[in-house]
Every structure is written in structure tokens, then in C-alpha cells.
Amino acid sequence: MISRFDSCADPTTLPPVKKVRFGAFTIACVSRSMLVEWALRDCATPDGSAKLVFDANGHALSMARTSEHYRGTIAAADIVHADGGFLVTLSRILRLNVIPERSATTDMLTDFATAFARTGYGFYLLGSDERVNENCANILSAEFPGLEISGRRNGFFSPDEEKDVVKAINSSGASILWVGLGKPKEQDFCIRWRHALNVKWIVTCGGCFNYVTGDYPRAPQWMQRANIEWIHRLATRPRALFTRYLLTTPHALWIALTDHGNGSR
Fold first, then answer.
1. What does DSSP assign to residue 160?
2. What does the domain layout of the chain look like in residue ranges?
3. What's this model's pTM, rounded to 2 decimal places?
């Protein structure tokens, strides 16, 4: 795939894009296809350190306002994309720099798997329990012939085991590391080890593997388009999500409506 950004003077840096700020998050106004193009370009570049790719959604906006530690981790990201659909809508309603579309991590994983098949650039899946992690790897391999799953590991490991986890990731030769450990653990892990990891992109993805396997059902397309997938998630996983959504959804909406702008703060 030839990227529209191949003419950038420095291939190790990101091309300039418009950005929009909601709360503590400065979000790149990019489409999912642009993210794929950037990743492919970086994988084809011999040099350059791993890029951190974090997501912004309602849960993240609320957590960043209440946790100074989590707020600090966000600043380390090279790219923040809009996982929350309401941010896309508000960027238009508030006449800010427009986010062209929602980039839910589950959809991103599918996009990347499609584009990376038969390129030789492999994925490493880190997170979820062993059953889900293994099933996710098998499903991706079956649905995307030629996609290289360089390695995988469940997300249950102690701090003392992290060096061995990093060593296994590097030994796999993977180009893209998907980290599904949940907020803020996944961001902490990424920042702690980014300079020791020999991958090109480190992408946080929360419970993405569980959606691939069907353990967490996706909402119908009309709900996704209307930015109310969170209602479907709440209905299908009330015990796990009721308290979180009850507290974070109105808080995140208030933050987005009262604290926003173009570019960074």
C-alpha cells in the first residue's frame, strides 16, 4: 500500500494533522484508514522508536479528570484516537476541528489485520485471559489468511515477570503490539517498557480481544452509528459496567462540553 504521507521529509515522524482537545486528551483528527497507513509506513521504516497509540472515550475522559497519575500517562502518547463516538459528534456540533470517524479499537484491529495480511509485519496479542487470548489469535489467523500472529500472551503476570514478557515480545519479531490490560494498567505498561520494546507500534486496546471472540457482543450497526453502543454494552454486561457507566458517562459528557478546543491546551 502506498501512503499519501510517503513524501514526508522525515519518515520517522508523524505527518501534521489537525487536532482537537476534550479535557486532558488531544485527539488526532484522523480516520481509521489513515492510522493503518501510518502504521504500515512506520513498519517499513528501519529506524525509529515505538509509537504509543492510546484511545480516548468516556471512561478515559472521566478517569483523566479524577486521576493525576492517569492524566500524566496520556501526555506520553504519540497518537490519541477517538474510540468514543460521542467525541466525533461533538467535534462537529461544537464546530471544532472535525474527527472524521470513530476508531473503536475492535474495528481498528480488523482494519489492521486486513491491511497487514501477507506483509510480513506480525502482531503480538497481550492481554485477556488465556482462553480468550488463544481464541482471538486463532480467529484472526482464520479470518485473515496471511496475517502473522508472531506471538501472544495472556494479561495475567506479575511485575517481576514483566521483563520476561518484554523479552518474549521482542523475540517474536512482531511489528505491532496490541495491549489489552485495561486502563490504566495498559498505559502504565506501555510507558514503562516502550524504549525496551522492538516493535513499531504499541496500541492499547482494552477488552478488544473479548469482542473478537464474541465473549463481549458488539452492538448492532445502527447503535454504533448513533453513538449509543455503550447502552448495548450496559444491557449485555450490567454487573461489570453499571457502576462505571453511571458515574463516568455523565461526567465525561460534562467534561467534553465544558472543556474543549482546537489543538492542545
1. G
2. 20-257
3. 0.89
